[in-house]
C-alpha cells in the first residue's frame, strides 16, 4: 500500500512539473512574440528535463521559473537558428511535393517524389531528437544539426525509436485533445528525452555545478 501511495505521489509530482513546464513554455513563447519565442522555449523545456536527469536530488537548484528563464535566454539565438532551418527544410519539401503532385507523379517525377518522402522521413527523425542534442552538447546550431543527421545515419534504431515515441504521443494528443493545453510540449519532450537517455547516446557529465542549465561539454 505504501509503495502504491508512493507511486501515486511521484506520478502527481511529475504531472504537476510537466504542467508547470507547459505553462512556462506558453509564457515564454508569448514573451518572444511567438516567432522568436517558441523554439527557445522548446529548448528550455528540454534543458530543464536534462538537468532533472543529471541532478535529480539537487536541492541547490534555482526555482523552476528562474531555471527556465535562464535556459530560454541562453538558447534564444541558437534555438531560433535550428528551428527556422528545420522549418525551411519542411517548407521546401512540401513545396516540392505539391509541385510534383500537381504535375502528376509519372516517370522521373515519381522517382523524385520517392526521394522527397525519404527526405521527409529523415527530417522527422532528426526533428525528434534535435532539441535534446541542442541543450546537451555545447556547440553551435550548425554542429547540432549535423549531429542530429549523424545520429539518424549512425544510430538509425535509436532515431527511429525516438520518432516512434514522438509519433505515438502526437497520436494520443489527437485522440485526447484535452491533454494538449495541459501538457503541450512537455510530455513529448519528456518521453523522447527518456528514450535518448536510455539509448546511451547522451553521455552523463561528471557533475555539474549549481544551478545553471547551460549545456554540458561532451560528445556523442
Number of domains: 1
Structural class of the helices, strands and pairings? mainly alpha
- What count of helical segments does DSSP give? 9
Rg of Cα set: 19 Å
Measured between the Cα atoms of the first and last residue, the distance is 42 Å
Walkthrough of the structure:
This protein has helices at 2-31, 38-54, 64-74, 76-103, 108-136, 141-154, 156-175, 179-183, 186-199. It is mainly alpha-helical and 220 residues long. It has one domain (1-199). It is globular. Mean pLDDT is 87; it is low at 208-220.
Protein traits:
76% helix, disordered C terminus, globular, mainly alpha, 220 residues
Q: Can you lay out the helices and strands and say which pair or pack?
A:
Layout: H1 2-31, H2 38-54, H3 64-74, H4 76-103, H5 108-136, H6 141-154, H7 156-175, H8 179-183, H9 186-199
Helix pairs in contact: 1-2, 1-3, 2-3, 2-4, 2-5, 2-9, 4-5, 4-6, 5-6, 5-7, 5-9, 6-7, 7-9
Short characterization:
This protein has 220 residues and is an all-alpha fold. Helices cover 76% and strands 0% of the residues.
Amino acid at each position: 500500500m505504501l509503495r502504491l501511495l508512493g507511486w501515486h505521489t511521484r506520478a502527481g509530482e511529475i504531472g504537476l512539473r510537466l504542467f508547470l513546464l507547459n505553462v512556462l513554455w506558453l509564457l515564454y513563447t508569448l514573451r518572444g512574440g511567438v516567432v522568436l519565442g517558441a523554439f527557445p522555449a522548446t529548448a528550455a523545456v528540454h534543458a530543464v528535463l536534462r538537468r532533472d536527469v543529471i541532478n535529480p536530488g539537487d536541492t541547490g537548484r534555482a526555482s523552476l521559473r528562474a531555471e527556465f528563464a535562464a535556459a530560454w535566454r541562453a538558447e534564444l539565438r541558437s534555438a531560433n537558428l535550428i528551428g527556422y532551418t528545420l522549418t525551411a527544410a519542411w517548407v521546401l519539401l512540401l513545396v516540392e511535393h505539391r509541385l510534383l503532385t500537381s504535375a502528376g507523379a509519372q516517370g522521373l517525377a515519381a522517382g523524385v517524389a520517392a526521394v522527397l518522402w525519404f527526405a521527409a522521413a529523415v527530417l522527422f527523425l532528426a526533428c525528434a531528437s534535435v532539441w535534446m542534442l541542442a541543450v546537451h552538447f555545447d556547440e553551435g546550431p550548425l554542429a547540432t544539426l549535423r549531429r542530429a543527421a549523424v545520429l539518424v545515419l549512425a544510430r538509425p534504431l535509436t532515431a527511429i525509436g525516438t520518432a516512434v515515441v514522438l509519433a505515438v504521443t502526437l497520436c494520443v494528443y489527437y485522440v485526447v485533445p484535452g491533454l494538449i493545453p495541459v501538457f503541450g510540449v512537455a510530455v513529448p519532450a519528456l518521453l523522447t528525452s527518456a528514450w535518448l537517455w536510455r539509448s546511451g547516446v547522451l553521455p552523463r557529465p561528471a557533475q555539474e555545478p549549481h544551478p545553471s542549465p547551460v549545456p554540458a561539454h561532451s560528445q556523442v
